[in-house]
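Record type: ASSEMBLY
Status: queued
Input:
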Amino acid sequence: MRYISTRGEAPALGFEDVLLTGLATDGGLYVPESLPHFSLEEIRSWRGLSYSELAFKVMHPFVDDAVPADDFRKMLDETYAVFAHKAVAPLVQLDTNEWVMELFRGPTLAFKDFALQLLGRLLDYVLEKRKQHVVIMGATSGDTGSAAIEGCRRCEHVDIFILHPHQRVSEVQRRQMTTVQGDNIHNIAVRGNFDDCQRMVKESFGNQSFLGGKTQLAAVNSINWARIMAQIVYYFHASLALGGPDRSMAFSVPTGNFGDIFAGYLAKKMGLPISQLVIATNRNDILHRFMSGNKYEQHQLEHTLSPSMDIMVSSNFERLLFDLHGRDGLAVKTLLENAAKGPVSIEDYRWKHARKLFDSDAVDDKTTCDTIREIYEQNEYLLDPHTAIGVRAARRCRRDHAVPMITLGTAHPAKFPDAVAESGLSVKPPLPAHMADLFEREERYTVLDNNIAGVQEFIAKHWKNA
Ligand SMILES: *Cc1c(COP(=O)(O)O)cnc(C)c1O
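Status: finished
Output:
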């Protein structure tokens, strides 16, 4: 399998190199040159497979000979065995033909574990083969950092440095990062805000000389292709559990960077009958505004009760724009260069095509809380604020009640107790048993000044073979 850049100018790469690369050299994102396609008969034959067996069927064509079949099977067994539920991604029924797929049974209680648990293992496998070492450097305002740290804690060939803004992440989020034991795990609390952290990471990728040429940086943010790939699997998993592929499904997806829902779009292109994909956003609604009025325009960032979806632009949307433009990299490059300067539109027929593929809705904080309360009153089931946005959008956009509507449950409610409290409910979502002692565990992190030279010096000094 070859991977090409959405901006058309970077060299095509194989899976191993795509795994180790973040952005393509032309500023684009890597996508497969062509997608595998599965017949209904083949998908039907996957009924009854375990999650990890199904993951093998769906992902092996992408990974190819980078990981031999037997090794890949073993890796997937290990990856999904760490989830605290035998079904890995269990479905919970809300109403007639309406479901939530719980994607929060992994170590850090959010769907990002599905991809990052695998990514850590894939990286280590490829680096072992190549006798190479990488330093992962990332900035986090919460969820991604902890999932990345959990995913890399057992990696022999990876050191991971995660920057978070000192005293500006919630205590649960900080503890999920800082209580993970491992010599290769380094938490840095920067005396600054999230943007300061992100800027330092970006600049460090641009000039890696501080590492002295002895190792290289790797990225685990949501533009990494392997993360998208791992998220395709659970669309097949849900469909097969509810009578697919002999019946089509609808999915509603709480959306920030457009990674998770893009995986659903790919599942459909690979042959899974999906009749509706709903983009559910919070007040940071650039995608909903584009889908409703063909105007792609950045607004000021708003802080909401669903912080993991607080974004100004959705980086993975570029991958969809590439397809909407007939995979013309130059057209995408021009469009996104213009979008950085002001509002842009695409040709009407292309936009109409996008509207056929997706529905969308934006949900504000008050409606998010109303939904949490309503579902609790109806079912005694607690939603986290991100999932609540998905459920609300699903109900508003639903077209055919004979088609099962599945909302992706992206986080466990215990991660976001404030939203639950604000919805007026007196229940407090307890942490799951495997995390119940989080507040007693020992923390390890280093506080550094908001100064790139100091941070780089720290990294250069503390990676494994420094
Ligand atoms: C990251 C995240 C999202 C957004 O997912 P994207 O792939 O960026 O669209 C939604 N909900 C939760 C809980 C998340 O952590």
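Annotation: Residues 110, 112, 143, 222, 254-260, 308-309, 386, 410-411 surround pyridoxal-5'-phosphate (CB under 6 Å).
Annotation: The first helix runs from residue 15 to 20.
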